[in-house]
Design a protein that fits this description.
The chain is α+β, with helices and mostly antiparallel strands. It has 16 helices and 10 strands.
């Protein structure tokens, strides 16, 4: 409380210099430049918060759509099949963070219909167990997973694959397995006709166009396996999947390999992280330019206030006190600009689902057309650590911008400054 009642003179003078001066056109111009610097910092901080929030939103949206089909962790045997999957599932469920386990068979195959051939990934599942590890059952557009019955050779395909092959439930297609049959005439590919009983839409083009589901037993027959290819696990917190996989690899018995969802899509996540870093650097330069505008503002202030500085020096003010005055002035401009920018950025990021539709309706445009993009609404995922990091960086840059002008002010010689006054 004593600080606010009787603040040090450095704070009093620094605050006075920060306020807009009305005594001369020069003071008004300096105050205008100071306001421009403050506005630049605010806009740069707000832009960086909004852009990172939108990029985080896109990453979260795509990741969630991928994980609606993929599992958090995959466990598979080095031999290519895991016949005793029940025992492995029981061991995995002993981990407190594992919430579900389901077997699967997976292999590449060719699908053909009316002389059109496509390469796809075929996954054999148990429909009653699949809901424990994925949400594919909730993404069915037509039919259901329960129609996958052993021995009936039914198949569920993605919506993009159905469009490209012009397939509907009840239609037939031929599946060609890469493992051939040895005959007197040579090695012949194994073909099997399947009936389409369902169509799903995961919202991710790669899966919707190249993934198909069949019953686990049909998959074992198709790919000539003695059991499932492995086990798919779901954990409570998908962000901890790598740590859980590492712990399970030490506790599960057998010659098993574990792979978490981040390893399955390493290239995609690495590309997104690189893009976020580059965007952070580019937008940081905007904040840096605005922050270092304070240099010119403070240099002009020091030049204009040389007589005041000289009088303060003759009254006993030390060079450190003179430096502190101008550091306080510049730091306050940076702090106010950062506070405005953080408030504006957080407000926009939290309400982007309202702001963007308003702008689209106002100007009659659509940023993400439904017929081109799978995501028609602009997503936003505000993360407070990002906000703290951006705000702290802006304040540090503003503080660094004050060092040279304040050091120059401390070097003013009273006699020379007052010579022509």
């Amino acid at each position: 409380m004593a600080f606010f009642k009787n603040p040090p003179f450095e704070w009093t003078i620094g605050l006075r210099y920060t306020r807009a001066g009305r005594r001369s056109a020069r003071n008004s111009f300096i105050s205008f430049i100071s306001l421009i610097s403050m506005a630049g910092i605010a806009l740069g901080v707000a832009a960086l918060i909004v852009v990172l929030s939108v990029m985080n939103g896109f990453q979260k949206e795509v990741r969630d759509r991928m994980l609606s089909v993929l599992s958090h962790i995959e466990v598979f045997d080095g031999s290519g099949s895991l016949p005793d999957w029940h025992a492995t599932a029981l061991q995995a469920m002993q981990h407190p963070e594992v919430r579900g386990a389901a077997p699967y068979v997976e292999g590449q195959a060719m699908v053909t219909r009316n002389e059109v051939v496509r390469g796809i990934m075929v996954r054999g599942i148990l429909p009653e167990e699949e809901a424990k590890v994925s949400s594919i059952a909730a993404q069915m557009k037509r039919g259901s997973l329960s129609a996958l019955q052993p021995g009936e050779f039914n198949i569920v395909i993605g919506i993009e694959l159905a469009r490209s092959l012009m397939l509907r439930p009840g239609d037939k297609l031929t599946l060609i397995a890469p493992q051939g049959q040895v005959t007197p005439a040579g090695v012949l590919p194994r073909l099997k006709q399947f009936t389409v009983v369902g169509i799903f839409e995961a919202g991710h083009y790669e899966f919707d166009s190249s993934l198909a589901f069949i019953h686990l037993e049909d998959g074992e027959k198709m790919f000539r396996l003695a059991g499932p290819s492995g086990l798919r696990l779901k954990v409570a917190d998908m962000q901890r999947a790598p740590q859980v996989a590492s712990e399970l690899s030490a506790s599960l018995s057998g010659d098993l390999y574990l792979r978490d969802w981040s390893q399955q899509n390493r290239n995609w996540f690495a590309a997104v992280q690189t893009e976020k870093r580059m965007m952070f650097i580019i937008l940081t330069l905007i904040i840096a330019v605005a922050a270092f505008n304070l240099v010119s503002t403070l240099v002009m202030t020091v030049t204009d206030k040389q007589a005041d500085i000289a009088i303060l020096r003759t009254l006993g003010a030390s060079p450190a006190s003179i430096m502190k005055i101008f550091i306080i002035q510049g730091a306050l401009v940076g702090l106010i600009g950062t506070a405005i920018g953080v408030s504006l950025g957080v407000l926009i990021a939290l309400n982007i689902d309202v702001i963007v539709p308003f702008i689209e309706s106002l100007f009659g445009v659509q940023f993400l057309p439904r017929d081109i993009y799978l995501i028609s609404a602009l997503p936003s995922d505000l993360r407070w650590p990002d906000v703290s990091r951006i705000g702290g960086m802006a304040i540090v840059l503003a503080f660094l911008a004050t060092l040279y002008p304040s050091w120059r002010a401390a070097r003013v010689r009273p006699a020379e400054a007052l010579r022509y006054e």
